[in-house]
């Protein structure tokens, strides 16, 4: 037997541009805005975003000023990224 999802009403004020973007996204996806908002909430509320070991180490290195790459400008940065 399938259980029916129960809903609560939520009223929030959002910027007009965000509302337009949300409405456009819903239209492109062919979904009601309510469903798009619920999908976005679920992907952010229930998806753990715990950094892995590599990320934790990189964060620690940055905080301690270790293993930093210095670039002279944007071209230098892209050159070093490609290397």
Task: Write a structural description.
There is one protein chain. The chain is mostly helical and about 80 residues long. Helix content is about 55%, strand content about 0%. The protein folds into two domains: about 10-50; about 50-83, no CATH class. It contains four helices and no strands. α1 (about 15-30) packs across α2. The longest helix has 14 residues, at about 15-30. The model has no long low-confidence stretch (mean pLDDT about 90).
Write the layout of secondary structure elements.
Elements: H1 16-29, H2 33-45, H3 53-63, H4 74-82
Helix pairs in contact: 1-2
Q: Briefly note the structural class of the backbone.
A: mainly alpha
Shape assignment: elongated
Query: What's the mean pLDDT score?
Result: 91
Order of helices and strands: HHHH
Question: How many distinct folded domains?
Answer: 2
């Amino acid at each position: 037997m399938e259980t029916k999802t129960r809903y609560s009403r939520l009223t929030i004020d959002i910027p007009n541009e965000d509302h337009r973007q949300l409405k456009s996204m819903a239209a492109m996806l062919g979904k009601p805005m309510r469903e798009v908002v619920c999908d976005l909430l679920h992907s952010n509320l229930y998806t753990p975003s715990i950094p892995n070991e590599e990320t934790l180490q990189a964060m620690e290195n940055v905080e301690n000023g270790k293993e930093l790459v210095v670039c002279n400008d944007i071209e230098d940065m892209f050159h070093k990224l490609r290397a």
